[in-house]
Amino acid sequence: MGGLFAAAAALPAAVQRALYVRAALCRPAARRAARARLGTMAKAPGKSKAAKLAPAKPAPARPVLLSGGNPQIAKAYGDAPVQAYIAAMPGWKSDVGHRLDALIVGAVPGVYKAVKWNSPFYGIEGEGWFLSLHCFTRYVKVAFFRGMSLEPIPPGGSRQKDVRYLDIHEGEEIDEARFANWVKQASKLPGEKM
Fold first, then answer.
1. Residue 65: predicted pLDDT
2. CB under 8 Å to 161, separation ≥6 — which residues?
3. Please, what sign has the CA dihedral across residues 115, 116, 120, 124?
């Protein structure tokens, strides 16, 4: 078999790669031998790996919008990442996000905030999370993690027995008194540990 690899060294690089791939389909010992022999073959001048790598792209000025227009924000705790998420919400959704955030902060002073899984979460520090927001194409979804315990129960159902949703569409008025009441109730219930 040594003659085969010696002859392979004289072949063009594309053929050498094809032989390596074929060897990779063989038993582990044959793969190691092929890797060792191909690794010792001379590389074409000027084709170093570093030369092929493109320079790093600068970070985008605005966060990337995922499906449905949901902003991609790195996991972080505190008000700053939540405000970055809200600012990146597209169009009318940003106004809804600002209003909901203000209502939540007004209902629960000192609320603990974070962005996790590209969604803002609200909770009581050390107690868990009681609410999250998420952008979809046609609406903003508010998830109450213990929504079945709220009075009145939020309208949107879930596959999870305790979770209830409130979907806010463009142009819909938010019943601020009811929403603030739900937030106050939710903040007093056991939170979700996530």
1. 84
2. 148
3. negative
pTM here is 0.68
CA quadruple 122, 104, 126, 164: dihedral sign: negative
Residues forming a β-bridge with 122: 113, 131
Angle between helices 92-107 and 176-188 (to 10 degrees): 50
Longest dimension (CA), the chain: 83
How confident is the model over 133-162, as pLDDT tens digits? 999 999 999 999 999 999 999 999 999 999
Checking if the pLDDT of 50 tops 90, the result is no
Q: Which domains does the chain have, with CATH numbers?
A: 2-46 (no CATH), 67-188 (3.90.1150)
The whole-number pLDDT of residue 192 equals 93
Rounded to an integer, what distance in angstroms lies between the CA atom of residue 97 and that of residue 120?
Answer: 10
Which helix (DSSP H) or strand (DSSP E) does residue 90 occupy? Answer: none
